[in-house]
Amino acid sequence: MYDADGRPVEGYRYFFITLSAPSFGAVHRVPKPWDKVRRRCACGAAHSPEDVELRGLPVNIDAYDYNGQVRWHGGLSRLWSSSVDAMRRQEPSLEYFVVREVQARMALHAHAIVRVPAGSPSSAASLGAAARRAEAAHPATGEMMAWGQKGVQDREITARRRHEVDLPVNMSTAATRVISYVSKALNYSLKDITPGQDVAGSDPSPDRLAFVERLRAAARLHVRCKDCPDEGPVNCIRAAHRNLGYGGHTVTMSRPTENRTGWSFSQLTRKQIREERMAWAAANYPVADDDTNGEDQAWWARFANDLRAERARDAWEAKEHAQAAP
């Protein structure tokens, strides 16, 4: 059996590891439609999946640590590098493919697929624990950044011996399952859903708009990056001040070195998925050329479109879970 790059799958094990942001204040806990356990929210209510407008919103919008969340985003690249170093101290041959996704609370987290030699004693639990213990100094403030420790699960991606439809030549079921995980993570980060699918949900609520605007104001006006001029972030041109504090890449992967082969999937590229998303967006959300809208208006239009797409994806996933249920 071979993977999409022509390497034997038997020589590797694959793990799916999620690294999340720490808490910056209590947010409403709203279950997904397929969640069997319904926990009481910090606000005192037991929400249902129909309360989607509240998912991820602060329980106390005035007490939320907006600056702290934006600063954490500014240290995310260094924190991930520190986590890679920690995992490689346990398994020097480890390779990775990682995607950053925005959660409902507008905090980034990382979906990472790591690959280790088949004979490695490492496990998903041991590598995930090592990654979450890592810390890194913020590039501008020097304060220590760390991962959140709750609500994450690490697991091994194992081969399932079953009939595969349209299985490419010389590709194993194990390889296609790994690629499906990467594709899912990429689609999440790009807010992509199936072309032609009906859009679920509506525009963002006023409370969500207010929440995101406070985060954007923190990134634009209050939180410095390492390249900010003396007068502060208001005149800084770095992308972090337009992107809630994070100025890095959505997707990164390990590169070839003298000791490691690097990571790639020849049959799955970010360009291919981005082009599919752009085609879907053009068909579902045609935007007229209007230079008078300004950068902020364009940002809000993209945010609203992405939120609608995310809700459509949630609706599709709920339907898939319902069909898979016994």
TrEMBL record:
<dbReference type="InterPro" id="IPR046828">
    <property type="entry name" value="RepSA"/>
</dbReference>
<dbReference type="Pfam" id="PF20199">
    <property type="entry name" value="RepSA"/>
</dbReference>
<protein>
    <recommendedName>
        <fullName>Replication initiation protein</fullName>
    </recommendedName>
</protein>
